[in-house]
Structure formats: structure tokens, C-alpha cells
Amino acid sequence: MSGDLNPEQKRDLEGFAHGARTTDEAIAFFANLKKSGDHSTAHPPRMQALARLPVFLALTGKRALIVGDGAPVAWKAELLSAAGADVAVFAERPCEELRAVAAQARAAIALQQRAWRIEDFTGAAVAVGGFDDEAEAGCFAGAARAAGVPVNVIDRPAYCDFSFGAIVNRSPLVIGISTDGAAPVFGQAIRARLETMIPRGFAGWANAARRWRKTVQSSGLSSSARRRFWQAFAGFAMNNPQREPASSDFDAFLSTAKDQVTAAGTGSVTLVAAGPGDPELLTLRAVRALQSADIVLIDDRLAPEMLDFARREAKTVLVGKTGPACRENEVAALMIALAKAGARVVRLKGGGSPIFGRAAEEIAACRGAGLAVEVVPGVTVGRGHGEIGRDRANNPARPTPIPGTPLRACCGSPAARPARTARALRSTSRG
Q1: How remote is the C-alpha of 253 from its chain's centroid?
Q2: Nearest alpha carbon to residue 40 among 298, 399, 318
Q3: CA 43, CA 37: separation in Å to the nearest integer?
């Protein structure tokens, strides 16, 4: 936007900020307010490029086709069986390990001592093959794709539509790790580290969440109240991983959600100091604030990686002095309008303390409008925010700043196991 708002726009802005609006109306108003200016259409992506898309398949009762022999094939059969698939293995001369897996599997494994045929792909959800011969591997992959069946050929990435990564199993909580085949040992090391960090008791809490979800959905709570229920659930589970979930816990979480319904009619504002701008230096309070935010107003000098800690459903707005986004003299009005619409607003600013300068004016304006304001300090540094911002812009080794973005471009929404199963869902990076 070129220049400041004209007097008529300023009057409209002040009147709108103190009126009763929905969050979408507030966003639309500010977007329309800027249509007359010059804008860049670039905006930071909500997700950086992915080498692989992590997708978790529901295979219970579905047919999985496996062809080949040897330990890697036996492992894939065991893994698919642990996921509940009906596994059909075709091996002309099955090894002892494959025979043992077929005899002891959690779900059915049908071991057939013959070569595979085209008709074997009928009804299959996935197909996995293990071949020493390149031509046979290509033939199998081609047949699977022709039949519309996703295929994985062990240790032959060119013939793989999907891959198996390292696994941390706290089913129904399952964590998958992939290096896109570049460094399987590195993936294993990450899995080993996560194994020490993720309590086994989380499996019980994940099971409780599965049991309680339908009850919460039918409880009559609003969507924001249901989110508060799950926030209370998650906070308690994280602090009490080894405790067995009880019905009294459910009642306490539900009571917490209901008790906050009245207070939630009006939103809130949280000013978060981002410190020197390094996402790894955000405080725990800052991360919690971002994870509960409906709207994040982020300084245009800060790195977009900061938004990785926000909920995917949260909307983001670039604010600040350097780009053609929401100007400093408009930020307080925007915060008031959004909070009065019921949103949880987080204002993410650079520096260690968010209570000086413009931020102090924003706090005073919000409190003058009757809104609750929380201030979350950040990591303090020896240099001023402006100098740090210039360093970030000039030093290519640091994360790049968010480019100037029109408001309308950046306000969109995205966004305990049986012993055999435990063994079957151990880590793997093969294939």
C-alpha cells in the first residue's frame, strides 16, 4: 500500500474496530481497505517442499500382496500384518524366516509357494516385491501400476510409489520417519532418540482419545470449547504419561471446557516477543501461545519458520513497517476487531520485550477496548531489533524475512500393544 490511510479510511477503521464483527468480517474489511494500494502477490508457503508426503494407511481387513523371499520380504510381511492387513505372500521357495512369520503373525498371512500372476493384484490395496533381478522388479512394478495398486520394490527406489520409514510405535500413536532413502542410518538414529523421549504411556492416552472422541463430538460443545477440551486433555497427558486414563479425567476435562465458555465469548490478545528472530529460541510460553492462536499477526521482519509452531488452522497476517502489509498504525485496530469477533490473537514481535514503543500503544488500545492482554517476554539480546532485522536481511546464512504481502494473500486458512505387534512395528528404513 502506498502511503497511510486517508481520513475517511481512518474513520472507517476506528468505527469497525469497536463494532461487533465476526473474524471473517474483520479480515475481509482489512483486505478491502487495501485494495486501492500497490501490492506484491507473494506470500510465504504454509509448508516447505516435501521429499515425501507422510500418509498413514488404514489397512485393517484389506489385501496386501507380497512377492519374493528372504529376510527383507519377511519383515515387510510382518509389518503389514501388524497393521491389520490380510497378507498374501507368493514365494516359490520360502525361507525359514518367512515361514515363521506366516505362522506367528497377528493377522492372516497366506503363504503360497508359486510365482505371482497378474490376477493376484485384484483387490489388493498395496503391493510389495523383493527381487534380485532388475527386469523382474520392473515387470512386477509395471503390473502393479497397471492394476492401479501402489507398489514398493525393496531397495529399488525407481520402482517405488511409497516407502517404509523408521517407526516409533505407541499405537494408536504412530510416528513415521523418512529420509527419502538418502540416509537410513540417520533415520534409525532419530528413531532411537525419539524412543527415549516418547513415554510408552502415551499409547494409553491415545487410546483414551479414540474412545472419548465421539462423546465429545456429541456433547453439544462449540468447536472452540471442544478444542479447549482437547487442550486440557493434551496438557494433562503430557504431564502424566504413565497414569492410566480414567473416566474422572474425562469429566474434569469436560468441566474445564464448559467453565471457559462464558469467558470465551470475547477473544483475547497475546503479545509474544520472538527474541532475536531464531525459531529455536522461542520460549515454551511463546510456543504454547502460538499453538492456541486463531490469528497470528507476525512482524514482516521475522522468519516464516516461526509459523511452524502455530496451528495449521490458524490464519496469519503480516504486519509492520517494511512491507505493503498491515501498517503499524492499523495493527491495534485489527487486533481489537479480531478479538472482539472472538478470536485468540497472537501478536508476534521481534526482540526480548514486547512492552515498549508501538507495542505499548497496542496494549493500551486493547485494554482500553476492554480486552484481556497477555505479554510473553522473549530471549533478550545485546543488540536492538532493527539491527538484528538488518542482519537477517543481509546475511544469506540466516532465514530470509517474509516478503511484503497483501493482507488478502496471507489471511487464508491452510491452516499398549501386544508383544507381537510391538515387534512388528519396530523401526525400519529398508525399502
Answers
A1: 23
A2: 318
A3: 17
In a domain, 207, yes or no: yes
Instruction: Identify the active-site residue in 10, 62, 258, 321.
Output: 321
Phi, psi of 314 (to 5 degrees): -70, 140
Question: Helix, strand, or coil here: 59?
Answer: coil
Question: Which residue ranges in the chain fall short of pLDDT 50?
Answer: 1-5, 20, 33-43, 262, 264, 323-325, 383-431
d(CA 179, CA 166) in angstroms, rounded, equals 9
- Is 16 among the domain residues? yes
Beta strands at 63-67 and 173-177: parallel, antiparallel or unpaired: unpaired
Q: Are strands 63-67 and 151-153 parallel, antiparallel or unpaired?
A: unpaired
Alpha helices in 198-297 (DSSP H): 202-217, 223-239, 247-259, 284-292
Which of 299, 315, 340, 349 is labelled catalytic? 299
User: For residues 428 and 76, what is the distance between their CA atoms, to the nearest angstrom?
Assistant: 9
Annotation says 315 is catalytic = no
The 10s digit of each residue's pLDDT in 196-217 is 999 999 999 999 999 999 999 9
Q: Is 321 annotated in the active site?
A: yes
Q: Residue 82 sits in a domain of what CATH number?
A: 3.40.50.720
Q: Does 312 reside within a domain?
A: yes
Q: What angle do CA 274, 298, 280 make, to 5 degrees?
A: 35
83 and 217 inside one domain: no
| Full-model pTM | 0.65
